[in-house]
Amino acid sequence: MKTSLLLTLGLLTFFGLTESCTNQTTSPCGQPQQVTADPECYTGNGLRLTAGNYGDTPLSFTWDIYALKDTSRIMGWTSKDEKIKMIAANTFVVPDSLVSQYQRLIVNVAANCGGQLKYSTYYGFTKKTSSGGNCTTWVNQNQ
Fold first, then answer.
1. What does the pLDDT read at residue 113?
2. Is residue 134 part of a domain?
3. Which of 2-11, 40-49, 70-79 has the lowest mean pLDDT?
4. In a domain, 16, yes or no
């Protein structure tokens, strides 16, 4: 009697653990839902961008970055602007040569989900200097 009770409890525990393991869901690989710029004062060592909220870990990320001289949103792309495209991890450091010379960055990143690229929306970042002039940060244009 005692043995069958222990066996029954053991089987119930086993099936309960198996059920809880199979019911765990993971978020499928998808497009990045967020792109952020390093919030610290810019020190001249490039600008770190980070993609987030993309579900299961993609194989890689493809970064498209447009560096624009104009911040007014009126002119759009000009011959003075630059574009870079890189395959990297979920963080990417924009070279100082672009960050120091340009006023606006337009960023789009794609997650490589098993060979299928899933693109984020476009994000715009502009330089903002503190009132004292001693700290420059890159902020999301929509903030």
1. 96
2. yes
3. 2-11
4. no
